[in-house]
C-alpha cells in the first residue's frame, strides 16, 4: 500500500495564521508523525481491509498532533518569569545633590518580595564606612535571625554633614531621606517600620534625623552621640519621637555633660534625654533600674531610665554605661581591653536597639 499525505485546506489554514517562529516546530511535529504512520502502515498493511476507515484514523491523528503542539507552544509563551532574588549582600549608589553616594545593604534570606519587611539604617562614625560599622555592630546576623533589611550608607569623605554650609556642601539629612525612598523602590519595605541608628557622629546624624524627618522614620537609637546645640531650636515637629540613647559616662569624645553652649558643640546627654521627653510629653517619674550583673564586683554597669506613656505610644529610654567610654557595647573589636569591658558588661547594644525598635511602628 502507498500512503499519500495531503495537507487539506483546514490544515493549511492553521499554518497560515501562525507566527513564523511557531511554524517550524509544528512542521517538525507534522513530519515526525507522518514518518511514524508510514511505519505503522507498513506493519499493518496485510490486515487493513477498510481503506476509508484507515484514512479517517490517519486524519484524526494528524489533527490531534497539531492541537497538542499548539497548546504546548501557547503554554510556553505564557510562562511568567520569576522575580529576581535580592538576598544577601550588595553595594548600591544614588545620585544626590550632585554627588554619587554609596551604601552597603544586607537583605536576609527570609526576604519575600511579596511581603513587606522592616528597614534599619545604620550610620558609621568619623573615618568609618558602611562596611566597618556593619562589622562592629553585627546587625547582619540580627537581620537574618529577626527578618529585616539593613542598609549602611557611606558619608562623603567618611564624615557626616548636617548642613550644605559645611566644607563638603552636603546635607546628609536630605541624602538619607532620598536613600529611604530609593530603597523602597528596590525592596518591599514596611513604611511603618523604618528605623535609624548610628555611632558617634553617626549617632549625631540620628539625632538630626529625629529633629528633621521624624515622619519618615519610626524610631531612633543613638550610640555615643547627642544632639548638636544649634539643632535644639529646630526640633519643633509635632510628630512623636521614640528615642533610645546609649552613652558611656566617661566618654572623652562625646562628653556626658556636654560641650557648653557653643553652637558647634553638643548638649549634655541628660539634656538631650530631657528634650525628647518634653517633646513627647512623657509623664514623670521615670522607671529607673540597674540590671543585675553576673559578678556584683565588676566595675562596669548599665543604668536604665525609661520614660513611657508618652504621646502616640512613643517612649524615651536612656542607657548609661557607668564609667564606659566611646564604644559600641557588645560590638566586635580587636582591642583586648574593649573585649574585657564587653565581657564584664554583658550588654549587647545591637540586640537592645532591635528590641526597642520592635516595640514601635507608625500604624
Structural summary, described in words:
- The chain has a 10-stranded mixed sheet, sandwiched between helices. Strands 5-6 form a two-stranded antiparallel sheet.
- It is globular.
- The chain has 10 helices and 12 strands.
- It has 2 domains: 9-77, no CATH class; 88-358, Rossmann fold, CATH 3.40.50.
- It is of the alpha/beta class.
- Helix 2 (20-44) runs antiparallel to helix 3.
Task: Characterize this entry briefly.
The chain is an alpha/beta fold. Helices cover 37% and strands 20% of the residues.
Major β-sheet annotation: 10 strands, mixed
Radius of gyration: 34 Å
CATH class of the largest domain: Alpha Beta
The domain tally reads 2
CATH homologous superfamily label of the largest domain: Alpha/Beta hydrolase fold, catalytic domain
Secondary-structure-derived class: alpha/beta
Alpha-carbon distance between the termini?
81 Å
- What proportion of the residues is helical, as a percent range? 25-40%
* Uncertain residue segments: 1-27, 65-84
DSSP strand content: 15-25%
Count of DSSP strands: 12
Order of helices and strands: HHHEEEHHEEEHEHEEHEEEHH
CATH architecture of the largest domain: 3-Layer(aba) Sandwich
Amino acid at each position: 500500500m502507498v500512503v499519500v499525505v495531503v495537507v487539506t485546506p483546514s490544515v493549511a489554514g492553521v499554518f497560515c495564521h501562525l507566527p513564523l517562529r511557531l511554524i517550524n516546530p509544528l512542521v517538525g511535529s507534522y513530519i515526525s508523525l507522518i514518518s511514524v504512520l508510514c511505519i505503522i502502515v507498513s506493519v499493518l498493511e496485510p490486515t487493513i481491509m477498510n481503506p476509508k476507515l484507515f484514512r479517517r484514523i490517519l486524519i484524526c491523528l494528524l489533527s490531534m498532533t497539531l492541537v497538542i503542539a499548539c497548546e504546548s507552544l501557547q503554554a510556553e509563551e505564557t510562562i511568567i518569569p520569576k522575580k529576581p532574588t535580592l538576598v544577601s549582600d550588595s553595594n548600591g549608589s544614588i545620585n544626590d545633590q550632585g554627588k554619587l553616594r554609596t551604601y552597603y545593604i544586607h537583605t536576609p534570606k527570609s526576604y519575600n518580595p511579596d511581603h513587606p519587611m522592616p528597614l534599619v539604617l545604620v550610620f558609621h562614625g568619623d573615618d568609618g564606612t558602611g562596611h566597618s560599622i556593619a562589622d562592629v555592630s553585627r546587625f547582619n546576623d540580627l537581620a537574618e535571625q529577626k527578618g529585616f533589611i539593613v542598609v549602611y550608607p557611606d558619608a562623603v569623605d567618611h564624615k557626616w554633614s548636617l548642613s550644605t554650609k559645611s566644607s563638603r556642601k552636603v546635607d546628609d539629612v536630605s541624602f538619607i531621606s532620598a536613600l529611604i525612598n530609593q530603597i523602597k523602590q528596590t525592596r518591599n519595605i514596611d513604611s511603618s517600620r523604618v528605623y535609624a541608628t548610628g555611632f558617634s557622629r553617626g549617632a549625631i546624624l540620628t539625632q538630626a534625623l529625629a529633629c528633621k524627618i521624624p515622619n519618615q522614620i519610626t524610631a531612633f537609637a543613638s550610640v555615643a552621640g547627642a544632639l548638636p546645640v544649634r539643632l535644639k531650636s529646630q526640633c519643633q515637629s509635632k510628630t512623636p519621637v521614640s528615642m533610645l540613647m546609649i552613652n558611656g559616662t566617661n566618654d572623652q569624645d562625646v562628653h556626658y555633660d556636654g560641650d557648653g553652649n557653643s553652637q558647634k558643640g553638643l548638649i549634655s546627654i541628660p539634656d538631650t534625654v530631657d528634650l525628647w521627653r518634653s517633646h513627647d510629653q512623657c509623664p514623670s517619674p521615670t522607671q529607673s533600674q540597674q540590671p543585675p550583673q553576673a559578678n556584683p564586683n565588676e566595675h562596669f554597669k548599665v543604668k536604665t531610665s525609661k520614660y513611657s506613656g508618652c504621646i502616640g505610644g512613643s517612649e524615651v529610654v536612656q542607657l548609661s554605661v557607668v564609667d564606659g567610654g566611646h564604644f559600641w557595647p557588645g560590638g566586635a573589636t580587636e582591642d583586648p581591653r574593649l573585649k574585657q569591658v564587653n565581657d564584664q558588661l554583658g550588654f549587647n547594644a545591637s540586640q537592645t536597639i532591635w528590641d526597642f525598635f520592635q516595640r514601635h511602628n507608625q500604624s
